[in-house]
Structure prediction request, 463 residues.
Amino acid sequence: MNEPVHGQVSQKVLARVVREHAGRLAASLVSLLGDFAAAEDLVQDAVETALRRWPAEGIPERPDAWLFTVARRRGLDVLRRESNYRAKLAQLTWPAPVPHADRLRLIFTCCHPVLSRTAQIALTLRVVCGLSAAQIAAAFLVPGSSVAQRITRAKRKSGEAGIPYRIPAEEELPQRVEEVLTVIYLLFNEGYLSSTAERAQARDLVDDAEWLAALLANLLPKEPEAAGLLALIRLHRARGAARFDAQDRLVLLADQDRGQWDRQAIEQATALLTRAARTHRRPGPYQLQAAIAACHAEAKTFADTDWAQILVFYDMLLHLAPSPVTRLHRAIALRLAGLHLRAAMIWIKDLARATP
Amino acid sequence: MFIETEEFAQQLEAMGELEQQTAYAAVGKWFADHADKITHHTHLAPVHTATTMRLGQGEPVITDGPFVEGKEVVSGFAEVEVADLDEALKIARSWPACPIVEIRPAS
Prediction:
Protein backbone atom coordinates (compact mmCIF):
# COMPACT_ATOMS: atom_id res chain seq x y z
CA MET A 1 0.00 0.00 0.00
CA ASN A 2 1.23 3.48 -0.86
CA GLU A 3 1.57 6.17 1.73
CA PRO A 4 -0.55 9.19 0.87
CA VAL A 5 1.77 11.85 -0.49
CA HIS A 6 0.79 15.46 -0.09
CA GLY A 7 2.11 18.72 -1.40
CA GLN A 8 4.64 18.72 -4.19
CA VAL A 9 4.78 15.34 -5.87
CA SER A 10 7.99 14.74 -7.78
CA GLN A 11 7.82 13.74 -11.43
CA LYS A 12 9.73 10.60 -10.61
CA VAL A 13 7.29 9.43 -7.96
CA LEU A 14 4.35 10.33 -10.16
CA ALA A 15 5.82 8.39 -13.08
CA ARG A 16 6.53 5.38 -10.90
CA VAL A 17 3.03 5.19 -9.44
CA VAL A 18 1.30 5.69 -12.79
CA ARG A 19 3.53 3.10 -14.45
CA GLU A 20 2.86 0.59 -11.71
CA HIS A 21 -0.91 0.85 -11.99
CA ALA A 22 -1.92 2.02 -15.47
CA GLY A 23 -0.83 -1.16 -17.25
CA ARG A 24 -2.68 -3.33 -14.74
CA LEU A 25 -5.82 -1.32 -15.23
CA ALA A 26 -5.43 -1.60 -19.00
CA ALA A 27 -4.94 -5.36 -18.77
CA SER A 28 -8.02 -5.88 -16.63
CA LEU A 29 -10.18 -3.58 -18.76
CA VAL A 30 -9.18 -5.16 -22.06
CA SER A 31 -10.00 -8.57 -20.68
CA LEU A 32 -13.31 -7.36 -19.36
CA LEU A 33 -14.45 -5.40 -22.41
CA GLY A 34 -12.73 -7.52 -25.03
CA ASP A 35 -11.96 -4.29 -26.84
CA PHE A 36 -8.40 -3.04 -26.82
CA ALA A 37 -9.15 0.45 -28.15
CA ALA A 38 -12.06 1.14 -25.80
CA ALA A 39 -10.09 -0.02 -22.76
CA GLU A 40 -7.11 2.05 -23.80
CA ASP A 41 -9.24 5.18 -24.07
CA LEU A 42 -10.55 4.71 -20.55
CA VAL A 43 -7.10 4.14 -19.07
CA GLN A 44 -5.68 7.12 -20.90
CA ASP A 45 -8.45 9.28 -19.59
CA ALA A 46 -7.86 8.12 -16.03
CA VAL A 47 -4.11 8.68 -16.37
CA GLU A 48 -4.56 12.17 -17.72
CA THR A 49 -6.92 13.03 -14.88
CA ALA A 50 -4.37 11.69 -12.40
CA LEU A 51 -1.50 13.65 -13.98
CA ARG A 52 -3.61 16.79 -13.70
CA ARG A 53 -4.76 16.31 -10.13
CA TRP A 54 -2.14 14.34 -8.24
CA PRO A 55 0.66 16.93 -8.41
CA ALA A 56 -1.51 19.36 -6.43
CA GLU A 57 -3.72 17.01 -4.39
CA GLY A 58 -1.13 14.38 -3.63
CA ILE A 59 -1.10 10.76 -4.66
CA PRO A 60 -4.08 8.91 -3.17
CA GLU A 61 -3.57 6.11 -0.71
CA ARG A 62 -4.79 3.54 -3.22
CA PRO A 63 -3.75 4.86 -6.63
CA ASP A 64 -5.01 1.72 -8.38
CA ALA A 65 -8.48 2.04 -6.90
CA TRP A 66 -8.50 5.76 -7.72
CA LEU A 67 -7.58 5.18 -11.37
CA PHE A 68 -10.06 2.37 -11.54
CA THR A 69 -12.89 4.52 -10.19
CA VAL A 70 -12.17 7.30 -12.68
CA ALA A 71 -11.96 4.84 -15.59
CA ARG A 72 -15.15 3.13 -14.53
CA ARG A 73 -17.13 6.33 -14.07
CA ARG A 74 -15.83 7.67 -17.35
CA GLY A 75 -16.59 4.38 -19.03
CA LEU A 76 -20.19 4.46 -17.86
CA ASP A 77 -20.50 7.96 -19.35
CA VAL A 78 -18.68 7.45 -22.61
CA LEU A 79 -19.84 3.97 -23.43
CA ARG A 80 -23.48 4.88 -22.99
CA ARG A 81 -24.39 3.54 -26.38
CA GLU A 82 -22.54 0.30 -25.96
CA SER A 83 -24.97 -1.34 -23.56
CA ASN A 84 -22.77 -4.41 -23.47
CA TYR A 85 -19.76 -2.50 -22.11
CA ARG A 86 -21.91 -0.60 -19.67
CA ALA A 87 -23.31 -3.73 -18.17
CA LYS A 88 -19.86 -5.24 -17.84
CA LEU A 89 -18.34 -2.10 -16.36
CA ALA A 90 -21.17 -1.71 -13.88
CA GLN A 91 -20.42 -5.16 -12.50
CA LEU A 92 -16.75 -4.54 -12.14
CA THR A 93 -15.44 -3.94 -8.65
CA TRP A 94 -11.97 -3.26 -7.40
CA PRO A 95 -9.60 -4.91 -6.80
CA ALA A 96 -9.87 -6.70 -10.10
CA PRO A 97 -7.33 -9.52 -10.24
CA VAL A 98 -4.89 -9.19 -13.15
CA PRO A 99 -3.41 -12.54 -14.05
CA HIS A 100 0.08 -12.58 -15.52
CA ALA A 101 -1.37 -13.75 -18.81
CA ASP A 102 -3.37 -10.53 -19.17
CA ARG A 103 -0.33 -8.31 -18.80
CA LEU A 104 1.61 -10.43 -21.28
CA ARG A 105 -1.24 -10.31 -23.78
CA LEU A 106 -1.23 -6.55 -23.47
CA ILE A 107 2.51 -6.30 -24.16
CA PHE A 108 2.44 -8.69 -27.11
CA THR A 109 -0.48 -6.85 -28.66
CA CYS A 110 1.28 -3.47 -28.39
CA CYS A 111 4.43 -4.96 -29.93
CA HIS A 112 2.75 -6.93 -32.70
CA PRO A 113 5.13 -7.16 -35.69
CA VAL A 114 2.58 -5.77 -38.16
CA LEU A 115 2.70 -2.41 -36.38
CA SER A 116 5.50 -0.05 -37.34
CA ARG A 117 8.32 0.27 -34.83
CA THR A 118 7.30 3.81 -33.88
CA ALA A 119 3.71 2.67 -33.37
CA GLN A 120 4.85 -0.25 -31.20
CA ILE A 121 6.92 2.08 -29.04
CA ALA A 122 4.20 4.70 -28.67
CA LEU A 123 1.54 2.10 -27.90
CA THR A 124 3.68 0.27 -25.35
CA LEU A 125 4.57 3.49 -23.55
CA ARG A 126 0.99 4.57 -23.48
CA VAL A 127 -0.86 1.37 -22.73
CA VAL A 128 1.65 -0.60 -20.68
CA CYS A 129 3.54 2.23 -18.95
CA GLY A 130 0.73 4.79 -18.79
CA LEU A 131 2.47 7.72 -20.44
CA SER A 132 0.31 10.46 -21.89
CA ALA A 133 0.68 11.37 -25.56
CA ALA A 134 2.26 14.66 -24.47
CA GLN A 135 4.88 12.83 -22.40
CA ILE A 136 5.76 10.51 -25.27
CA ALA A 137 6.04 13.49 -27.60
CA ALA A 138 8.36 15.28 -25.17
CA ALA A 139 10.57 12.22 -24.82
CA PHE A 140 10.99 11.81 -28.56
CA LEU A 141 11.04 15.53 -29.38
CA VAL A 142 8.10 15.28 -31.79
CA PRO A 143 4.81 17.21 -31.81
CA GLY A 144 2.13 15.80 -29.52
CA SER A 145 -0.37 15.69 -32.35
CA SER A 146 1.76 13.27 -34.34
CA VAL A 147 2.06 10.91 -31.37
CA ALA A 148 -1.69 11.01 -30.84
CA GLN A 149 -2.21 10.30 -34.52
CA ARG A 150 0.28 7.43 -34.44
CA ILE A 151 -1.56 5.86 -31.51
CA THR A 152 -4.99 6.33 -33.06
CA ARG A 153 -3.80 4.73 -36.27
CA ALA A 154 -2.18 1.83 -34.42
CA LYS A 155 -5.30 1.21 -32.38
CA ARG A 156 -7.49 1.31 -35.44
CA LYS A 157 -5.20 -1.11 -37.19
CA SER A 158 -5.13 -3.44 -34.22
CA GLY A 159 -8.92 -3.50 -34.15
CA GLU A 160 -9.78 -3.59 -37.84
CA ALA A 161 -6.91 -5.67 -39.16
CA GLY A 162 -7.61 -8.32 -36.53
CA ILE A 163 -4.45 -8.26 -34.41
CA PRO A 164 -5.30 -10.89 -31.83
CA TYR A 165 -5.25 -10.09 -28.15
CA ARG A 166 -3.36 -13.11 -26.95
CA ILE A 167 -0.02 -14.62 -26.06
CA PRO A 168 1.59 -15.96 -29.25
CA ALA A 169 1.62 -19.68 -29.91
CA GLU A 170 4.70 -21.65 -28.88
CA GLU A 171 6.21 -21.70 -32.38
CA GLU A 172 5.90 -17.92 -32.82
CA LEU A 173 7.03 -17.08 -29.31
CA PRO A 174 10.81 -16.66 -29.82
CA GLN A 175 10.27 -14.25 -32.70
CA ARG A 176 7.59 -12.31 -30.86
CA VAL A 177 9.65 -12.06 -27.67
CA GLU A 178 12.48 -10.69 -29.77
CA GLU A 179 10.11 -8.04 -31.11
CA VAL A 180 9.16 -6.95 -27.58
CA LEU A 181 12.80 -6.93 -26.46
CA THR A 182 13.72 -4.74 -29.43
CA VAL A 183 11.06 -2.21 -28.46
CA ILE A 184 12.33 -2.09 -24.86
CA TYR A 185 15.94 -1.87 -26.02
CA LEU A 186 15.20 1.05 -28.37
CA LEU A 187 13.35 2.78 -25.56
CA PHE A 188 16.33 2.33 -23.30
CA ASN A 189 18.74 3.68 -25.93
CA GLU A 190 16.55 6.68 -26.54
CA GLY A 191 16.55 7.53 -22.84
CA TYR A 192 20.15 6.57 -22.16
CA LEU A 193 21.75 8.58 -24.92
CA SER A 194 20.09 11.85 -24.02
CA SER A 195 21.93 13.81 -21.35
CA THR A 196 20.41 14.50 -17.94
CA ALA A 197 20.01 18.22 -18.71
CA GLU A 198 17.98 17.50 -21.83
CA ARG A 199 15.63 15.22 -20.04
CA ALA A 200 15.34 17.10 -16.75
CA GLN A 201 11.80 18.12 -17.63
CA ALA A 202 10.78 14.99 -19.45
CA ARG A 203 9.91 11.62 -18.06
CA ASP A 204 12.92 9.37 -17.90
CA LEU A 205 12.48 6.67 -20.54
CA VAL A 206 15.30 4.67 -18.96
CA ASP A 207 13.09 4.10 -15.92
CA ASP A 208 10.30 2.90 -18.17
CA ALA A 209 12.63 0.63 -20.12
CA GLU A 210 14.05 -0.94 -16.97
CA TRP A 211 10.61 -1.39 -15.50
CA LEU A 212 9.34 -3.04 -18.71
CA ALA A 213 12.36 -5.33 -18.91
CA ALA A 214 11.84 -6.36 -15.27
CA LEU A 215 8.16 -6.99 -15.89
CA LEU A 216 8.92 -9.11 -18.95
CA ALA A 217 11.71 -11.06 -17.22
CA ASN A 218 9.29 -11.77 -14.41
CA LEU A 219 6.44 -12.81 -16.71
CA LEU A 220 8.64 -14.90 -19.01
CA PRO A 221 10.97 -16.82 -16.68
CA LYS A 222 11.80 -19.27 -19.46
CA GLU A 223 13.27 -16.60 -21.74
CA PRO A 224 16.89 -15.92 -20.76
CA GLU A 225 17.09 -13.00 -23.20
CA ALA A 226 14.54 -11.07 -21.14
CA ALA A 227 16.77 -11.44 -18.09
CA GLY A 228 19.74 -10.59 -20.32
CA LEU A 229 18.18 -7.31 -21.40
CA LEU A 230 17.27 -6.45 -17.81
CA ALA A 231 20.86 -7.15 -16.69
CA LEU A 232 22.19 -5.05 -19.58
CA ILE A 233 20.02 -2.08 -18.65
CA ARG A 234 20.92 -2.35 -14.96
CA LEU A 235 24.64 -2.65 -15.68
CA HIS A 236 24.57 0.50 -17.81
CA ARG A 237 22.55 2.35 -15.21
CA ALA A 238 24.92 1.30 -12.43
CA ARG A 239 27.61 3.37 -14.16
CA GLY A 240 25.26 6.26 -14.81
CA ALA A 241 26.60 8.65 -12.16
CA ALA A 242 30.03 8.76 -13.82
CA ARG A 243 28.83 9.19 -17.41
CA PHE A 244 28.49 12.96 -17.41
CA ASP A 245 30.80 15.58 -15.92
CA ALA A 246 29.77 18.70 -14.03
CA GLN A 247 29.28 20.52 -17.33
CA ASP A 248 27.02 17.67 -18.49
CA ARG A 249 29.51 16.46 -21.05
CA LEU A 250 29.87 12.77 -21.77
CA VAL A 251 32.87 11.19 -20.02
CA LEU A 252 34.67 8.40 -21.88
CA LEU A 253 34.78 4.98 -20.25
CA ALA A 254 38.56 5.17 -19.73
CA ASP A 255 38.23 8.51 -17.92
CA GLN A 256 35.23 7.72 -15.74
CA ASP A 257 35.56 7.84 -11.97
CA ARG A 258 34.90 4.20 -11.17
CA GLY A 259 34.39 5.07 -7.52
CA GLN A 260 31.05 6.53 -8.55
CA TRP A 261 29.82 3.28 -10.03
CA ASP A 262 27.17 1.46 -8.04
CA ARG A 263 29.05 -1.70 -7.05
CA GLN A 264 26.05 -3.35 -5.42
CA ALA A 265 23.89 -2.85 -8.51
CA ILE A 266 26.69 -4.23 -10.69
CA GLU A 267 26.98 -7.34 -8.54
CA GLN A 268 23.23 -7.92 -8.54
CA ALA A 269 22.91 -7.47 -12.30
CA THR A 270 25.86 -9.76 -12.92
CA ALA A 271 24.30 -12.39 -10.65
CA LEU A 272 21.01 -12.08 -12.55
CA LEU A 273 22.81 -12.55 -15.85
CA THR A 274 24.86 -15.50 -14.61
CA ARG A 275 21.75 -17.21 -13.27
CA ALA A 276 19.86 -16.79 -16.56
CA ALA A 277 22.81 -17.94 -18.64
CA ARG A 278 23.54 -21.01 -16.48
CA THR A 279 19.93 -22.10 -16.08
CA HIS A 280 18.99 -21.98 -19.74
CA ARG A 281 22.27 -22.28 -21.63
CA ARG A 282 20.76 -20.40 -24.55
CA PRO A 283 23.00 -17.41 -25.24
CA GLY A 284 21.53 -14.51 -27.18
CA PRO A 285 22.48 -10.99 -28.19
CA TYR A 286 21.21 -9.35 -24.99
CA GLN A 287 22.91 -11.81 -22.65
CA LEU A 288 26.15 -11.31 -24.58
CA GLN A 289 25.93 -7.53 -24.56
CA ALA A 290 25.20 -7.71 -20.84
CA ALA A 291 28.21 -9.99 -20.38
CA ILE A 292 30.40 -7.41 -22.14
CA ALA A 293 28.95 -4.64 -19.98
CA ALA A 294 29.65 -6.80 -16.91
CA CYS A 295 33.31 -7.20 -17.95
CA HIS A 296 33.65 -3.42 -18.12
CA ALA A 297 31.74 -2.89 -14.89
CA GLU A 298 33.80 -5.40 -12.94
CA ALA A 299 37.19 -3.98 -13.97
CA LYS A 300 38.66 -1.95 -11.11
CA THR A 301 40.52 0.30 -13.57
CA PHE A 302 40.40 0.72 -17.34
CA ALA A 303 43.77 -1.06 -17.55
CA ASP A 304 42.31 -4.03 -15.65
CA THR A 305 39.66 -4.61 -18.32
CA ASP A 306 39.61 -8.23 -19.45
CA TRP A 307 39.75 -7.54 -23.18
CA ALA A 308 40.44 -11.15 -24.08
CA GLN A 309 37.16 -12.19 -22.45
CA ILE A 310 35.34 -9.28 -24.08
CA LEU A 311 36.71 -10.35 -27.43
CA VAL A 312 35.26 -13.84 -26.95
CA PHE A 313 31.83 -12.34 -26.22
CA TYR A 314 32.06 -10.12 -29.30
CA ASP A 315 32.90 -13.15 -31.44
CA MET A 316 29.84 -14.96 -30.12
CA LEU A 317 27.74 -11.86 -30.66
CA LEU A 318 28.95 -11.52 -34.24
CA HIS A 319 28.11 -15.14 -34.82
CA LEU A 320 24.54 -14.73 -33.50
CA ALA A 321 23.76 -11.22 -34.72
CA PRO A 322 26.25 -9.86 -37.23
CA SER A 323 26.18 -6.09 -37.58
CA PRO A 324 28.66 -3.41 -38.66
CA VAL A 325 28.52 -1.77 -35.23
CA THR A 326 29.39 -5.03 -33.51
CA ARG A 327 32.24 -5.58 -35.97
CA LEU A 328 33.59 -2.14 -35.14
CA HIS A 329 33.36 -2.79 -31.41
CA ARG A 330 35.05 -6.11 -31.85
CA ALA A 331 37.89 -4.43 -33.75
CA ILE A 332 38.35 -1.98 -30.87
CA ALA A 333 38.32 -4.83 -28.37
CA LEU A 334 40.82 -6.72 -30.50
CA ARG A 335 43.16 -3.76 -30.58
CA LEU A 336 42.88 -3.20 -26.84
CA ALA A 337 43.27 -6.91 -26.16
CA GLY A 338 46.43 -6.74 -28.26
CA LEU A 339 47.72 -3.76 -26.32
CA HIS A 340 46.88 -5.52 -23.11
CA LEU A 341 48.80 -8.57 -24.24
CA ARG A 342 51.77 -6.44 -25.27
CA ALA A 343 51.64 -4.66 -21.91
CA ALA A 344 51.56 -8.05 -20.27
CA MET A 345 54.60 -9.16 -22.29
CA ILE A 346 56.57 -6.07 -21.26
CA TRP A 347 55.56 -6.65 -17.69
CA ILE A 348 56.72 -10.27 -17.87
CA LYS A 349 60.04 -9.22 -19.47
CA ASP A 350 60.56 -6.61 -16.76
CA LEU A 351 59.75 -9.19 -14.16
CA ALA A 352 62.17 -11.65 -15.75
CA ARG A 353 64.94 -9.01 -15.81
CA ALA A 354 64.33 -8.07 -12.19
CA THR A 355 64.35 -11.67 -11.05
CA PRO A 356 67.87 -13.09 -10.65
CA MET B 1 -3.69 -10.45 -52.36
CA PHE B 2 -0.79 -11.83 -54.32
CA ILE B 3 1.55 -9.28 -55.78
CA GLU B 4 4.03 -9.99 -58.51
CA THR B 5 7.20 -8.05 -59.10
CA GLU B 6 9.00 -7.56 -62.41
CA GLU B 7 11.90 -9.58 -61.10
CA PHE B 8 9.64 -12.46 -60.15
CA ALA B 9 7.99 -12.45 -63.60
CA GLN B 10 11.42 -12.57 -65.23
CA GLN B 11 12.53 -15.43 -63.03
CA LEU B 12 9.41 -17.38 -63.90
CA GLU B 13 10.01 -16.73 -67.60
CA ALA B 14 13.63 -17.85 -67.39
CA MET B 15 12.71 -21.19 -65.82
CA GLY B 16 12.85 -24.40 -67.76
CA GLU B 17 9.64 -26.31 -68.27
CA LEU B 18 10.39 -28.75 -65.50
CA GLU B 19 11.18 -25.96 -63.05
CA GLN B 20 7.99 -24.17 -63.96
CA GLN B 21 6.00 -27.32 -63.38
CA THR B 22 7.61 -27.72 -59.96
CA ALA B 23 6.77 -24.11 -59.12
CA TYR B 24 3.14 -24.58 -60.15
CA ALA B 25 2.96 -27.83 -58.21
CA ALA B 26 4.12 -25.98 -55.09
CA VAL B 27 1.32 -23.46 -55.54
CA GLY B 28 -1.18 -26.28 -56.05
CA LYS B 29 0.04 -27.93 -52.88
CA TRP B 30 -0.31 -24.68 -50.94
CA PHE B 31 -3.94 -24.38 -52.00
CA ALA B 32 -4.53 -28.01 -51.09
CA ASP B 33 -2.81 -27.63 -47.69
CA HIS B 34 -4.99 -24.69 -46.76
CA ALA B 35 -8.16 -25.81 -48.51
CA ASP B 36 -10.12 -25.84 -45.25
CA LYS B 37 -9.38 -22.13 -44.74
CA ILE B 38 -9.65 -20.89 -48.33
CA THR B 39 -13.19 -19.97 -49.21
CA HIS B 40 -12.48 -18.49 -52.61
CA HIS B 41 -9.54 -17.69 -54.85
CA THR B 42 -8.93 -16.04 -58.19
CA HIS B 43 -5.94 -15.80 -60.45
CA LEU B 44 -5.88 -12.73 -62.66
CA ALA B 45 -4.66 -12.75 -66.26
CA PRO B 46 -1.34 -10.94 -66.82
CA VAL B 47 -1.27 -7.21 -66.41
CA HIS B 48 -1.01 -6.47 -70.15
CA THR B 49 -4.63 -7.57 -70.45
CA ALA B 50 -5.80 -4.86 -68.04
CA THR B 51 -8.13 -2.04 -69.04
CA THR B 52 -8.84 0.84 -66.71
CA MET B 53 -11.90 3.03 -66.84
CA ARG B 54 -11.95 6.32 -64.97
CA LEU B 55 -15.41 7.48 -64.16
CA GLY B 56 -16.19 10.97 -63.11
CA GLN B 57 -17.24 13.98 -64.99
CA GLY B 58 -18.58 13.43 -68.46
CA GLU B 59 -17.57 10.50 -70.59
CA PRO B 60 -15.50 7.78 -68.80
CA VAL B 61 -11.83 7.74 -69.79
CA ILE B 62 -10.69 4.32 -70.88
CA THR B 63 -7.00 3.48 -70.81
CA ASP B 64 -4.99 0.44 -71.62
CA GLY B 65 -3.19 -1.01 -68.62
CA PRO B 66 -3.54 -1.26 -64.84
CA PHE B 67 -4.75 1.70 -62.81
CA VAL B 68 -1.36 2.20 -61.25
CA GLU B 69 1.71 1.95 -63.44
CA GLY B 70 4.21 0.13 -61.29
CA LYS B 71 6.70 -2.64 -60.99
CA GLU B 72 4.42 -4.48 -58.60
CA VAL B 73 1.04 -5.70 -59.71
CA VAL B 74 -1.78 -7.65 -58.12
CA SER B 75 -1.88 -11.05 -59.77
CA GLY B 76 -4.66 -12.69 -57.83
CA PHE B 77 -6.25 -13.15 -54.47
CA ALA B 78 -7.44 -15.78 -52.08
CA GLU B 79 -10.10 -15.31 -49.49
CA VAL B 80 -9.37 -17.10 -46.24
CA GLU B 81 -11.55 -17.64 -43.23
CA VAL B 82 -9.37 -17.19 -40.14
CA ALA B 83 -9.78 -16.18 -36.52
CA ASP B 84 -7.26 -13.37 -36.54
CA LEU B 85 -4.32 -11.73 -38.25
CA ASP B 86 -1.79 -14.13 -36.74
CA GLU B 87 -3.49 -17.05 -38.43
CA ALA B 88 -3.53 -15.22 -41.76
CA LEU B 89 0.16 -14.39 -41.36
CA LYS B 90 0.93 -18.02 -40.71
CA ILE B 91 -0.80 -19.12 -43.91
CA ALA B 92 0.80 -16.32 -45.93
CA ARG B 93 4.25 -17.24 -44.67
CA SER B 94 4.14 -20.56 -46.49
CA TRP B 95 3.01 -19.07 -49.83
CA PRO B 96 5.49 -20.47 -52.36
CA ALA B 97 5.12 -18.11 -55.34
CA CYS B 98 5.23 -14.32 -55.91
CA PRO B 99 7.26 -12.40 -53.32
CA ILE B 100 4.62 -10.07 -51.88
CA VAL B 101 1.39 -10.93 -50.13
CA GLU B 102 -0.93 -8.24 -48.83
CA ILE B 103 -3.42 -9.19 -46.12
CA ARG B 104 -6.61 -7.26 -45.57
CA PRO B 105 -9.80 -7.94 -43.74
CA ALA B 106 -12.86 -8.23 -46.01
CA SER B 107 -16.49 -7.86 -45.21
